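Reminder to self: tokens first, then the designed residues, so the page reads top to bottom the way the pipeline ran.
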């Protein structure tokens, strides 16, 4: 040993003492003395010979962390290696941890030896990690990553050793897979909280859950044991190995309270039991905990399947604003505990602390993570990136939270790294305060506290903006919660008093309002609600009642809104959305008051309530290119192989944008022609994306169709829109008349391993497109597709070549099919094939025809349609109703007038072949002089008027039949033009 008497005169120790603040010298000297007593002259010489930078780091770390100083002083050989070897104080990968510990465990013969090895490895790695953190060789991200890798490695290698040892004595656990085959079972360990997120702090406990895939029994031992009992035994031993404090310390403190049923629950559960628990009994705080959950050890492949199955519990498909209320309740509970225990200086739980930053991030994750996949990341700093990317928080605010988070986590490490203690309390004594300040790069405690206070104030501000209830202290909030509305909803006022209050607020038909509320309150779904859901309803209803006082048709509006309320009684987070966002509730009441159609859309798809949050976007639909861009952005977050999710996103996207169009039309911000433009653009965006999705699926499965041997084609496929979509005149509930065309030789085949004939490829492509569009899912149908206008109708091929299409149109098509071709145009697919189709269309339409025969054909077809679809009038009686579309003098008459003029005169006036919509074709007909400009302008105005009526009536859930005297001028004009052309 090195002579103790030489301590005070030792140049090395005196040099080190000179580098340390006088306030920290007491424990520092004691550690040096311990080192002197345990060292040899050889070790002392090696330490003396180290360069100045290493000595400065030594003095800094030992004075700041008595934990490191004590361990290193008692293990001088390790300390010399730590300080003097470049292989210790460097950044390490997870594989480095695993390789080093595995080599140590390979020599282990029993559990006692395993515990000793794990503790020695842990202590040495803790010294290295804290050393690098306190000297700022490692940034915060590296520190938490290293701590997480250390925990993962210790858990996994210890579990493997214990599992193998248990198999020797208890037998091997086996289970029957879905194929009926016996397979060996392994434990999967779920790491929760900071461990799951790779964000473990330097003296943290670890929250774990133990699970296994299949029930069954052990084999190979003298007696069998159920798998659950086996894995409970493995879990118990694992906890003991990691958590038990021995003379060498511990590995990690293990907390199992986050498992299903908490401390009263079984220590290990099967996957099926886990899924059942979270589906049936999972609570809001468990969703919060599961956001960061990760398989950290054991069977990671099977564990990943469990985590995937639990995703719907954590991330709801709908926008889940209810979680904000839950997080607020959790924060209030924590705040009460902080005040009760006097923990205001707790940097994790106190105001402006780490927990508030986590709540901000996880509020957005839980609210929107079901739809925004980039919010499903476990690591908090990645969540911040997604918040900026998705436009959910201002970049400046996110940067402030990032900086605060990094600062607070460094403070946490400073506080814990002093003595390897699990604490988040700022020290109260002067010595440890100085240590924290120095670790954080400040000269004294005052400077440090000043900067800490700034960060905490910033965090509190942003937390309040996201989590704090809007308008908690405002007069509006007080009015919304007036006692009378609560008493009316609760039924404490009798019917007569309720009616008096409604009359006082100027509401007509008060008896109807009272009846609606009484029926709702007494309904079985309301009576069966669970406590939290009922509390949300009871909070929402008074606010709703107050809001309808500003609406003229309060009774009708209340009835429509209650239809929505009834639809979300089992998903009351939507009610939270509305009372958390008064503007959204205002828009809901406003739109429901003017349109039962919108009320039904919102009731059937409550996800659309999210659209009410931003009035700027609600009443300003995006332009065509913005539609496609927005859709692409949404679909980028969905795995390509998840067809069901892709189809759901397409449907919700369409519904959301159709809602915006309807809201804009009702608000008067979109004229009819723009409404039809937008509805058509939405359909085109859907079709374009559906074609891309279906094409990729087919190519992935069968390879590319070949144009020539060895020459694969690109997307030589075209979707033609006929009827309303072709004429850019879609309504809110229009179906799509489509025809599919390709341009690839049918005698060749695809170039994939599962090759099929080109013709079969395109037929299946068409079928897949129709399936994606037509399939009825929980979010409804994308579009109803009608393929009867293809060559030969229902008896024809689903997809035809352009050459066959042209041949059919030239030789076999009926006049009505050429009429339909007038309204046809490419809506998705190959641009090059679209140009070639337009040339074919122009040639067919511009073919010279016998006008008398054409006139007769068109008239006969119109008579048939009128007989089948028009209003039936009893002979001798005057008509009472007028069908805006199908009756004489209606929209179809105008369409047929246009089609006749185009087919009869386009060989003379090629411009008639350019357009597929009636309005621009009427303008061309006027310019050509086929009809006078005055007549075509009158027809155009009549056409727009009638279509506008249909649109508005659709939003009122009213049919296209109106009183016969509703549009006499338009009907008379159209009839006169019709008679002039066809009589």
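Designed residues (983 positions):
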């Amino acid at each position: 040993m090195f002579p103790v008497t030489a301590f005070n005169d030792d140049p090395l120790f005196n040099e080190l003492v000179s580098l340390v603040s006088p306030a920290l010298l007491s424990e520092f000297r004691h550690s040096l003395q311990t080192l002197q007593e345990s060292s040899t002259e050889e070790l002392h010489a090696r330490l003396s010979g180290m360069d100045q930078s290493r000595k400065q780091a030594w003095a800094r770390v030992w004075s700041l962390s008595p934990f490191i100083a004590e361990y290193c002083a008692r293990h001088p050989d390790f300390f010399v290696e730590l300080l003097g070897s470049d292989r210790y104080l460097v950044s390490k990968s997870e594989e480095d941890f695993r390789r080093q510990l595995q080599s140590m465990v390979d020599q282990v013969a029993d559990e006692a030896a395993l515990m000793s090895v794990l503790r020695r490895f842990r202590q040495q790695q803790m010294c290295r990690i804290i050393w690098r953190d306190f000297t700022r060789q490692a940034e915060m991200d590296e520190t938490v990553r290293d701590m997480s890798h250390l925990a993962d490695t210790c858990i996994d290698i210890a579990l493997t050793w214990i599992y193998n040892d248990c198999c020797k004595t208890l037998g091997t656990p086996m289970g029957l897979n879905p194929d009926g085959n016996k397979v060996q079972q392994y434990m999967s360990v779920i790491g929760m909280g900071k461990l799951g997120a790779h964000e473990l702090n330097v003296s943290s406990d670890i929250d774990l859950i133990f699970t296994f895939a299949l029930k069954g029994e052990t084999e190979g031992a003298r007696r069998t044991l159920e798998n659950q009992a086996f894995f409970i035994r493995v879990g118990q031993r694992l906890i003991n190995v990691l958590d038990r404090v021995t003379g060498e310390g511990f590995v990690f403190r293990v907390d199992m309270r986050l498992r299903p049923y908490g401390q009263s629950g079984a220590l290990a559960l099967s996957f099926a039991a886990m899924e059942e628990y979270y589906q049936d009994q999972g609570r809001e705080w468990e969703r919060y905990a599961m956001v960061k959950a990760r398989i950290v050890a054991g069977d990671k492949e099977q564990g990943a399947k469990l985590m995937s199955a639990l995703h719907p519990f954590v991330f709801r498909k709908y926008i889940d604003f209810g979680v904000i209320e839950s997080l607020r309740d959790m924060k209030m509970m924590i705040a009460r505990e902080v005040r009760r225990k006097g923990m205001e200086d707790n940097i994790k739980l106190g105001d402006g602390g780490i927990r508030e930053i986590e709540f901000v991030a996880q509020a957005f994750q839980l609210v929107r993570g079901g739809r925004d996949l980039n919010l499903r990341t476990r690591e908090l700093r990645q969540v911040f990136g997604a918040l900026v990317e998705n436009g959910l928080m201002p970049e400046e605010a996110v940067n402030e939270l990032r900086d605060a988070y990094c600062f607070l986590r460094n403070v946490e490490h400073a506080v814990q790294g002093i003595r390897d203690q699990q604490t988040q309390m700022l020290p109260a004594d002067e010595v440890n305060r100085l240590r924290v300040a120095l670790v954080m790069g400040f000269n004294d405690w005052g400077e440090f506290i000043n900067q800490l206070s700034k960060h905490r104030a910033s965090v509190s501000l942003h937390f309040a903006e996201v989590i704090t209830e809007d308008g908690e202290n405002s007069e509006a909030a007080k009015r919304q919660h007036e006692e009378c509305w609560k008493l009316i909803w609760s039924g404490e006022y009798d019917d007569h008093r309720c009616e008096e209050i409604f009359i006082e607020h100027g509401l007509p038909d008060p008896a109807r309002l009272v009846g609606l509320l009484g029926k709702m309150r007494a309904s079985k779904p309301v009576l069966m609600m669970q406590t939290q859901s009922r509390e949300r309803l009871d909070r929402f209803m008074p606010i709703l009642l107050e809001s309808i006082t500003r609406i003229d048709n309060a009774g009708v509006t209340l009835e429509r809104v209650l239809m929505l309320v009834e639809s979300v009684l089992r998903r009351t987070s939507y009610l939270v959305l509305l009372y958390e966002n008064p503007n959204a509730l205002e828009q809901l009441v406003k739109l429901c008051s003017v349109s039962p159609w919108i009320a039904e859309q919102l009731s059937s798809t409550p996800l659309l309530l999210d659209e009410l949050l931003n009035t700027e976007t609600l009443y300003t639909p995006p332009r065509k290119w913005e539609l496609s861009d927005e859709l692409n952005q949404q679909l980028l977050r969905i795995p390509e192989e998840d067809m069901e999710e892709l189809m759901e996103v397409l449907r919700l996207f369409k519904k959301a944008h159709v809602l915006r169009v309807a809201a804009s039309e009702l608000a008067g911000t979109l004229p009819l022609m723009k409404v039809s433009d937008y509805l058509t653009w939405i359909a085109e965006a859907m079709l374009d994306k559906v074609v891309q999705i279906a094409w990729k699926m087919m190519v992935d499965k069968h390879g590319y169709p070949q144009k020539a041997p060895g020459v694969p084609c690109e997307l030589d496929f075209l979707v033609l829109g006929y009827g309303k979509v072709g004429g850019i005149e879609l309504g809110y509930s229009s179906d799509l008349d489509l025809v599919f065309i390709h341009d690839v030789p049918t005698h060749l085949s695809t170039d994939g391993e599962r090759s099929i004939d080109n013709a079969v490829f395109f037929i299946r492509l068409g079928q897949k497109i129709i399936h994606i569009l037509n399939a009825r899912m929980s979010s409804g149908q994308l579009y109803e597709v009608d393929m009867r206008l293809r060559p030969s109708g229902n008896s024809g091929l689903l997809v035809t070549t352009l050459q066959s299409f042209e041949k059919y149109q030239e030789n076999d098509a009926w006049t009505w099919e050429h009429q339909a071709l007038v309204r046809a145009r490419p809506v998705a697919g190959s641009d090059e094939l679209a140009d070639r189709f337009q040339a074919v269309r122009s040639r067919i339409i511009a073919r010279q025809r016998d006008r008398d025969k054409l006139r007769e054909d068109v008239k006969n077809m119109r008579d048939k349609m009128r007989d089948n679809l028009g209003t039936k009038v009893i002979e001798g009686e005057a008509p009472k109703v007028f069908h805006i579309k199908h009756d004489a003098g209606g929209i179809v008459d105008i369409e047929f007038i246009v089609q006749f003029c185009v087919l009869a005169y386009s060989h003379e006036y090629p411009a008639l072949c350019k357009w597929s919509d009636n309005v621009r074709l009427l303008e061309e007909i006027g310019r050509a002089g086929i009809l006078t400009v005055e007549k075509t302008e009158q027809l155009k105005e009549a056409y727009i008027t009638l279509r506008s009526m249909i649109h508005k009536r659709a939003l009122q859930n009213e049919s296209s039949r109106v009183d016969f005297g509703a549009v006499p001028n338009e009907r008379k004009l159209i009839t006169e033009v019709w008679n002039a052309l066809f009589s």
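Confidence is low (pLDDT under 50) at residues 1-5, 470-481.
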